[in-house]
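ingest -> validate -> predict -> emit
validate: passed (alphabet ok, no gaps, 180 aa)
predict: started
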Amino acid sequence: MFRNILFISFGAFFLYAGPAIAQHSMPMASDSLTKAIAVLYPTEGNQANGTVTFIKTTDGIKVDAKIEGLTPGKHGFHIHEFGDCSSPDGASAGGHFNPGHMEHGAPTDMNKHEGDIGNITADSSGIASLEWTDKSLSFDGVNSIIGHSVIIHAKEDDLKTQPTGNAGARVACGVIGIAK
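emit:
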């Protein structure tokens, strides 16, 4: 009797079905990848939810966010290092995505975490949207955002306090995955 075991590697997966190994191609983060998405779910005790799409353009990666269930005002908006939203408070997503080991900053700063998107502002109904094109985000290489997470915070990111911008608790979390 054969046991099927799935081995995942960057760009390919292998299905072990006994004596032979079959290789099957998986979508690669490359020139052909043009869109990614994170579906955000509320952390425990919160209502925030929504979607963030990432679209490759000639100017960079366009970030298009639509979030609801927020308190009115500004909320820190970051890409975090792990694609893990399993803990009730979102802490399993780790810190800000920062492969260049830079200081925390504003999305327009040259010296910033890769994951520093800044703030998203909710209206009086708790609805927020944002369109931003970021030249430093990528779908491939060490700066690839695929498999990381998006976090929305309870408070405004002050864009200077190290290492997180003093943005407070995590109110929503979603993992960034490849989209059609």
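DSSP finds no helices and eleven strands in the chain.
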